[in-house]
Specification:
319 residues, Methylamine Dehydrogenase, Chain H, 1 helix, single chain, five-stranded mixed beta sheet, mainly beta, four-stranded antiparallel beta sheet
Length: 319
């Protein structure tokens, strides 16, 4: 009887989900609003009017700090601009910020010099931007429109209304040929980047706003306000979901899409699952604020940021 009991306990211990602590942290001057990883360089957008570039393969050393002009608040006082979105391609950086005027956006490109592409005078309410190549940027509008901006002409190749629902997020696939757009309706739109044509709608798994999406190897993950972490096969359109205990603010897929991360509870923990079996692989504890970005560097290394100044680094192979 005792032997059976100890075997039972050993089996429970063997199959228990490991709880992992961060292996490293990166301090940023300001609250992190967006973050991308381009090879070994982590590009971080802040609410203090700048982006910081860190070399994560070289002790998180600072490579560059790019600032944009201050803006005026409703009282007319100068304050740092909130950089909402950033990206990097070659030696060119993108900074999308608020203008301080009526919710309109400023868009800058830094390529040894800072060049402003859009200002409040253009009256564009853009929430997210990413490079497609050095001369083209994909834009996500608050109105849930997608547009492709040509930097040479400073004109849009197209602008397409995806739905009447408010935009939340978009994510590009690896070759940047397609993007998935999320909105407050819970329906995800897969878009052809060259034309803006809606290729497919993914629906049925989220019934409310999808805060964040990711797109890897033909799979899409969605972080839902309805406490559902959704997973879709883009080719078939079929999906499923993992139930969370709280609003799910962030998600990420590993490069192979075999693993998926969701911020599943009110304690800002990150749950890692096997994408196929939905089995929980690990629980990452240590984030102090509401998660806004999760990135898989590879199949085991994860970088996460929340509404504070500390970025955390995790290793799923740590003991």
């Amino acid at each position: 009887m005792k032997i059976t009991f100890f075997l039972f306990l050993a089996n429970v211990f063997l199959w228990a989900t490991p709880t992992l602590k961060p292996i490293d942290s990166i301090e940023i001057n300001g609250t992190v609003k967006d973050m991308v990883l381009r090879e070994n360089l982590l590009v971080v957008a802040t609410d203090m009017g700048h982006i910081e570039v860190k070399d994560i393969d070289n002790n998180n050393s600072s490579i560059q700090n790019i600032a944009i002009p201050n803006v005026k608040d409703f009282m007319g006082d100068e304050i740092p601009a909130r950089v909402m979105s950033t990206d990097k391609i070659a030696n060119r950086y993108l900074l999308l910020s608020d203008s301080g005027k009526n919710g309109y956006s400023n868009l800058f490109i830094y390529d040894n010099n800072l060049t402003q592409i859009l200002s409040a005078k253009d009256k564009e309410a853009i929430i997210k931007a990413r490079f497609i190549d050095k001369e083209h940027i994909l834009l996500g509008y608050l109105s849930n429109e997608v547009a492709l901006l040509d930097l040479k002409s400073k004109k849009e190749s197209y602008r397409v209304q995806l739905s009447e629902s408010k935009f939340s997020d978009f994510a590009l696939n690896v070759d940047k040929s397609q993007a998935v757009f999320a909105c407050e309706s819970g329906v995800l739109s897969v878009v052809d980047v060259k034309t803006g044509k809606i290729l497919k709608e993914l629906k049925g798994q989220n019934l409310d706003n999808v805060y964040k999406v990711d797109f890897k190897k033909g799979m899409v993950s969605g972080a839902g306000q309805d406490r559902r972490g959704s997973l879709y096969d883009v080719n078939t359109g079929k999906g499923s979901y993992i139930a969370g205990a709280f609003l799910i603010y962030a998600t990420a897929l590993s490069p192979s899409s075999s693993k998926v991360a969701f911020a599943m509870d009110e304690k800002n923990n990150i749950s890692i699952y096997n994408s196929s079996s939905k089995t929980k692989i690990a629980l990452l504890k240590g984030q102090k604020s509401t998660l806004n970005v999760i990135i898989f560097k590879d199949e085991n290394k994860i970088i996460s940021a929340s509404d504070d100044s500390t970025i955390l680094v995790w290793d799923l192979k740590q003991k």
